[in-house]
Structures are given as C-alpha cells and as structure tokens.
Amino acid sequence: MDNLQISEEQFTNMQESFNAFNKVFGILIGVKKNKLNLIATILLIIFAMLLYIVFVFPLAILKGYIILNTICVVYGFTPITTLIMTAITEPGVILKRQISDNQQPESSLTQSNDDTIQIENTTQQDDVPKIYRERFCSTCNIQRPPKASHCRECNHCVDGFDHHCYWVGTCIGIRNWRYFVYFLIAAFSAPLLAFLVGIVLFINSFSLATTLWFEMFDTLGISVLIFYIFYIICGFWQHKTILNAFTLIIMIFGPLLFTFSIFQNRTQYQQYYYYENPYFTLFVSLVMLLISCMLLPMTSVNCSNALQFKTTKQIHSEEEFRREKGQFRFGDNKIEFNLMKKNLIQFITYHIPKSRYQNL
C-alpha cells in the first residue's frame, strides 16, 4: 500500500471492493455467489468416499489388502484438501481503481518460452494477442496488466485469469491456478484408484458372484431372459437412448437388489456380511469409474494447459489471434517433450505472488 499514492476516498472504495469479494474472511476467500456450489462439490466428494468406506473398505481389510486400502482411503482426502486450498486462496484480484494509467503493473505469469509469443515491454500492441496487451477495463476503471481479464461473475479483474469455476465457487487466477490443477488431478485419480481396488476385490469374489448370478436366473427364470431379449430387440437394435438408459439402470440395480435379498433370506448366505456381496463392490466400482470418466476431459485439458504453462484464456486468445491473421492450423499447440518438461517444472515451482491487498 505504501507505493501507491491514493486518496482516502479511493482507499475506501478499494477496501469495500475487496470486502465484497471476500464474503467470508479466512474461510471462503474469493467465494462470492457460489458458496452453495462449493459446499455441494464437497458433499459429492464426501458421498463418494462414504460409498467406498461403507461397501469396499471393510471387504478390502477382510481380504488382506490393508496397505492398498489404506493408501486409497488416505488419498481420498486429497480432492477435498486441494479443493479447499483453491477456494480459500484469493485468485489475484486487481481491485477497482488500483492501477493508475501510468503505472506499470507486475505479473508473475509473464515469463515466456523460446517458441511462445514475446509479450514483455512490446511497443507493437497489435502484433500480440489481446490477452497479452495492457487494456483498460471500464468496469473496474483500471489499466489491467497482460494476462489479466475481467470476471463477469465476480465483477473484478483477475491477474492470470483462467476462468470462473462454478464447482469451486471462485475465479481461477494467478494465485490459485496451481491448486486448481492439483484438485482436478486428485479428483480424477482418487475415484480411479478406488475403482481399481473394487475391481480387484470383485475378481477375488468372482466365484461367489457367479453363484449369485445363477441363483438369480434360477429364481427369476424366464422373466430375466425375456427382459434381455426385449432390450436387444427394442433398445439396442432400434437405438432408443432413453430405453437403453432405463434398461441399463435395471441391469445394474436388479442384481444388486436381488443378491441383497438372497443374503437376507437364504440360510446358506446369512453368514456373509453385507459388504461381502460382490455386486455391491461392483456397483461402487462403476460409480467411481463414472466419476473419473466425467472428470477426464476437464482434467486432461487443464493438464495440457499446465504443460504449456498457459491458461485457458491465453490459449483461446492466441487461437483467435492466429485466426485473425490467417495463421491458425490445427495442432499448432503441440510442443516438444523437453519443452513440456520445462513448462511442467515451471508450473510446479513458479512463485505464487502475495495478495496485493491482503492487509486491507
């Protein structure tokens, strides 16, 4: 604050602006309108963890996979930890009326590689993508630095802006970008690891699963066969999406509920615990796989960006610039392995700047 000559009125405006951004001090810094989104994301992670702990964890202990199971459970807390770190880290807000027109702002994401567009101290603003230019923001009334953009959701300019994430409930910027990528990697790999453990346990109990499967056919008989024929003729053959989805749900939940009934009512199975039902294990494993598949596109895109040491906003701006110049080609973003390694090290080790006005 000492290096900025501002009036008391401007300081009050900045303080109110920052306080508006930080609705809950020290807990949900940066979370503005999306607190419920963040809470919902945490609850979804906890729900997935509970599924594993209730239906897979005891069986893994019983079968002797203690070390593997412990690693899976401990690692399961990583998505929550990284999610909270992303949410509580102020992303790099540039306050309204913070930067004067003649002041040269400082950005920690302005380092460039040999094959990237040079953006520092350039006098030809039109020869670089918009994201690398110093632009005036009429909403915040500031001259924002390169790589900064305005977030419509939070109504603030953010340094090193990537995007506004509704799942996390905050902007992804220069200060929490690394935590966000770590969160995506953890959120993708944790359920994938749980899926692998579940599949190992299901294979281990395959003989029991086969016995229960034949029990179902023996009890339900011709009705199960008719159901599968109906699915093949009316669903799969005619490509009825809704019917396929409905049938697949029955195919998953049918054996689950029926084998649960067998465990409860058949004398020869009553000595088993609920978690020894292999179809519970298979069901939880499929849920974990589904979670990983849903996160795969977002995780891969952001990891690719990290390997280029560029935010999503930068890449889109560069592509738009090349299209305008007639230089865009598919595959332009491909980089060599050594450069990827260099960018990855840079991404992991770059200095995260302090919040400009954390003492307001």
Question: Can you walk through the features of this model?
Answer:
- Pfam families: DHHC.
- Its EC number is 2.3.1.225.
- It is found in: Endomembrane system.
- This is Palmitoyltransferase.
- The protein is mainly alpha-helical.
- The chain has a domain at about 10-105 and about 160-205 and about 275-350.
- The protein has twelve helices and seven strands.
- It has helices at about 10-20, 35-55, 55-65, 65-75, 80-90, 175-205, 205-220, 220-235, 240-265, 280-310, 310-325, 335-350; strands at about 95, 135, 140-145, 150, 155-160, 165, 170.
- The strands form three sheets. A three-stranded antiparallel beta sheet has the order 1-5-4, with no helix packed on it. Strands 2-3 form a two-stranded antiparallel sheet. It has a two-stranded antiparallel ribbon with strand order 6-7.
What keyword list fits this structure?
three-stranded antiparallel beta sheet; mainly alpha; two-stranded antiparallel sheet; 57% helix; 12 helices; 7 strands; 6% strand; transmembrane; elongated; 360 residues
